[in-house]
Write a structure and sequence with these properties.
The chain is mainly alpha-helical. The protein contains 18 helices and 2 strands.
Length: 548
C-alpha cells in the first residue's frame, strides 16, 4: 500500500491513468453496437458475423477477468494494468485495420484478453495507491469522471462512426492507450499483495473459456451446422462446463471458490444476474440495430438514444441503494427487473414511423428506472453473502456471470427470432424479429424478478443488545468516516463493492463481512467490475453454507 495524497501530482496522475484506462473499455463497449450496421455494410458481414464481433470480446472478458485480477495481485497491479492497456491498445489498432469480418472477430477476442487484464486493475490502482483518508475521495473522483465519460461515450462514439469511420471508434484507443501507459509508468506506484496465492487456476480458466466458446459457437453457427450437429456441439459445451465445475471443486487453488455457491443468497443473486444481464445485453443490441435499420437513425443519434439510462443511473442509483438499505434487497431486486420488463415491452412497440419522444423515450426511461432499483441492491447482496476475504472473488464471479449472460443472449436470441444472413439490413424482416426479441427479453427480466422474490432473503435485523467490541483504531475509524458511500448505509470491500450491512452503533460488532464503503451506485456486474482479492484459504468460507 502507498500513502499518496489526492491533491498531489502523483495522486492526480493515478486518477488520470485509472480513468483513461477504464474509459477506453467503456467507450469501446458503448460504440460497438452503434457501429455494427456500418461494419456490416463495409465488410459485407452477415448476422452471425455481427454476433461474433460483439461476443468475441465478451467471451474473452467473461472467461479471464477473474484470472486477470489474481495476476495483478501477484505480479504487481501497475504492471498487469499497463500490460492490459498495451494489449488492449494493440488489439484496438488491429480492429481498426481489419479487412474482413474474420480479422475483426479475432482482434475483438484479443481486445477482450486485454480488457480482462486492465479492467480489474483500474480501481485496484486507486485502492492500493492512496492513503486511507483520501481513498474514498479518490474513488469518488474516479467514479464521477467515469460517469462523465459514460455520458459522453454515446455522443463521441456515434460521432466518430457517423462522420469519420467505424474504424476510428477503435483507432481512437491508440492515443488514449499511449497516454495511459505513459502516465502509469511515470507516476503510478507499484503495489502487490505479498500474501497473494502463487498458484493460478489455468485449467479452470481454459475450461471456462472452452465451455463458453463452444456453446456460443453452436448458438451462432446453428444455421451452418444443422440441427443435429448443433445439438451435439451444445452437448459438448455443457460437458466442458461440467468438467469446469469438477475441476474447481477438486483443485486446491480454484479460480471460483465452489463453497461460495453453498450460500443460497449468493446463488440466487447470481441466477438473477444471469437472467437480467442477458436481457440487458440483448435489449441494447437489438434496439440499436432497430433504430438504424428501421427508423433510419444515424450512428450518433442511435448511440444517444440510450442516454437517459446513463443520466438516471448517475443521479438516482444512490437512492436505490438507500431504499434497499432501509427495507432490504428482496423487494427492490424483485420490482427492478419487472419495471425493466415493462420498459422493454414499451420499447417493443418501436417501429417504422415511431418518434423518439413518444416511441423510444418512454420505454428507455422506464427501463432506466428499473435499473436504478436493482443495481445497488444486487451488488450489495452478492457481497453480503460472501466472507470478507473473498469479496473480490465474489464480485468477480458476479461480473463474469453478467458478461456470460449478455454473451449467451446475443448468441441465442437472433436464431430464436429467425434472423440470419443480412436480415439485420432489411427493415421489414428485422422489425418483426425485433419485436419478438424484445418480448423474450421482457420474459427474462420478469423471470429474474421472480427468482429474487422466491429466493432472495432480507438480512436479519441486528440484535438489540450491543456486543462488546475491541477498540477501533483511530486510523481505521478515519477510513470509515472518509470512505462512506450511500450516506454510510452501504459498506465497501477491498474491491469497491457496496454491501447492505446496516449501520452499527458504536460498541457493537456486526457479522464479519464487508467493512468499507463504496461510491453510490457501483455495480460489480457493470463495465468495470471489481478489482479482485487473491484466492487464499479462509475458515470463514465455510460459514457461507449456513448464511441466510
Amino acid at each position: 500500500m502507498s500513502d499518496l495524497a489526492l491533491d498531489s501530482r502523483a495522486g492526480r496522475s493515478v486518477i488520470a491513468a485509472a480513468v483513461l484506462g477504464s474509459g477506453m473499455a467503456l467507450l469501446d463497449g458503448t460504440v460497438v453496437n452503434v457501429a455494427l450496421v456500418r461494419i456490416g455494410e463495409e465488410l459485407r458481414a452477415g448476422m452471425s458475423d455481427l454476433q461474433w464481433i460483439t461476443n468475441g470480446y465478451l467471451l474473452a472478458l467473461a472467461s479471464l477477468i477473474l484470472l486477470g485480477g489474481s495476476l495483478g495481485d501477484r505480479f504487481g497491479r501497475r504492471r498487469v494494468f499497463v500490460i492490459g492497456v498495451a494489449w488492449f491498445t494493440l488489439a484496438s489498432a488491429a480492429c481498426g485495420l481489419a479487412q474482413s469480418p474474420g480479422q475483426l472477430v479475432v482482434a475483438r477476442v484479443l481486445q477482450g484478453v486485454g480488457g480482462a487484464l486492465l479492467t480489474p486493475g483500474s480501481l485496484s490502482l486507486i485502492q492500493s495507491s492512496f492513503r486511507p483518508g483520501d481513498r474514498g475521495k479518490a474513488i469518488g473522483a474516479w467514479s464521477g469522471l467515469g460517469g462523465i465519460a459514460s455520458a459522453a461515450g454515446p455522443f463521441v462514439g456515434g460521432w466518430l462512426v457517423q462522420y469519420a469511420s467505424w474504424r476510428w471508434a477503435f483507432l481512437v484507443n491508440v492515443p488514449l492507450g499511449a497516454a495511459t501507459i505513459w502516465i502509469a509508468q511515470l507516476h503510478v506506484p507499484e503495489s502487490r499483495d505479498e500474501r497473494a496465492d502463487h498458484h493460478f487456476d489455468v485449467p479452470g480458466a481454459t475450461l471456462a473459456t472452452l465451455a463458453l466458446g463452444v456453446t456460443t459457437f453452436a448458438l451462432i453457427q446453428h444455421e451452418a451446422l444443422g440441427a443435429g450437429p448443433t445439438v451435439g456441439v451444445l452437448a459438448l459445451g455443457l460437458a466442458i462446463g461440467v468438467a469446469f465445475v469438477v475441476v474447481e471443486r477438486r483443485t486446491p487453488h480454484p479460480m471460483v471458490q465452489p463453497a461460495l455457491f453453498a450460500s443460497p443468497q449468493f446463488s440466487a443473486a447470481n441466477a438473477m444476474t444471469l437472467l437480467v444481464y442477458a436481457a440487458l445485453g440483448a435489449v441494447f443490441f437489438f434496439l440499436t440495430l432497430q433504430l438504424q435499420t428501421v427508423l433510419g437513425y444515424g450512428p450518433m443519434l442511435a448511440g444517444m438514444a440510450s442516454l437517459p439510462v446513463t443520466v438516471l443511473m448517475l443521479f438516482l442509483a444512490s437512492k436505490g441503494g438507500e431504499l434497499a438499505s432501509r427495507i432490504g434487497p428482496r423487494l427492490p431486486m424483485t420490482l427492478g427487473p419487472v419495471v425493466c420488463g415493462v420498459g422493454t415491452v414499451l420499447l417493443a412497440g418501436v417501429g417504422a414511423g415511431s418518434t423518439y419522444w413518444l416511441g423510444v423515450l418512454p420505454g428507455i426511461t422506464v427501463f432506466g428506472l428499473g435499473l436504478v432499483l436493482l443495481v445497488a441492491p444486487l451488488t450489495a447482496t452478492v457481497l453480503a453473502a460472501a466472507p470478507d476475504r473473498y469479496a473480490g472473488v465474489a464480485s468477480g464471479v458476479n461480473n463474469a456471470v453478467a458478461r456470460a449472460g449478455s454473451l449467451l443472449a446475443v448468441a441465442a436470441l437472433p436464431a430464436a427470432v429467425g434472423l440470419s444472413g443480412t436480415d439485420y439490413a432489411d427493415p421489414e424482416a428485422f422489425s418483426s424479429a425485433y419485436r419478438a426479441a424484445m418480448l423474450l427479453c421482457a420474459v427474462l427480466l420478469v423471470a429474474g424478478g421472480a427468482v429474487s422474490w422466491l429466493l432472495i432473503r432480507n438480512p436479519e435485523a441486528e440484535p438489540s443488545e450491543p456486543v462488546p467490541a475491541e477498540p477501533v483504531p483511530a486510523e481505521e475509524a478515519a477510513v470509515g468516516a472518509h470512505e462512506g458511500g450511500l450516506e454510510g448505509a452501504l459498506d465497501r470491500t477491498h474491491d469497491g463493492i457496496p454491501t447492505l450491512a446496516p449501520k452499527v452503533a458504536r460498541g457493537a460488532v456486526p457479522a464479519r463481512r464487508h467493512t468499507r464503503s463504496v461510491q453510490a451506485g457501483w455495480s460489480c456486474a457493470g463495465s468495470e467490475g471489481c478489482p479482485g482479492t487473491s484466492h487464499r484459504e479462509d475458515d470463514d468460507l465455510a460459514s457461507t453454507s449456513g448464511a441466510r
